[in-house]
Amino acid sequence: MNQNSSSQTYDAVAVIYDRSRFRTIRGRFFSILRNRILDRLAMELPSSGKVFDLACGTGLMSAWLIKKNYQTTSGDLSR
Q1: To which H or E segment does residue 57 belong?
Q2: Confidence check: pLDDT of 1 > 60
Q3: Pick from 10, 50, 65, 77: most CB atoms within 10 A?
Q4: What pLDDT shows up at residue 29?
Q5: Each residue of 40-54: pLDDT tens digit?
Q6: Rounded to the nearest 10 degrees, what angle do helices 25-44 and 60-67 cross at?
Q7: Are 54 and 73 in contact (CB under 8 A)?
């Protein structure tokens, strides 16, 4: 499997994983809590800049950072 194919497969699985994980009551609570923490963190950070999101998992926090105008580099050692 080439790199592009692996990335596309991972992206597709990540979407399914996130949808199933955050539809439960526990998942929705976690999502609300995560967003509150990130919004509070944003008040302490400069309005833009470069950020490394290590152990990014499915990239939810990276997506949030990108929407807040941060240049984001993400990485994860998923197996």
Answers
A1: none
A2: no
A3: 65
A4: 93
A5: 988 888 888 898 999
A6: 40
A7: no
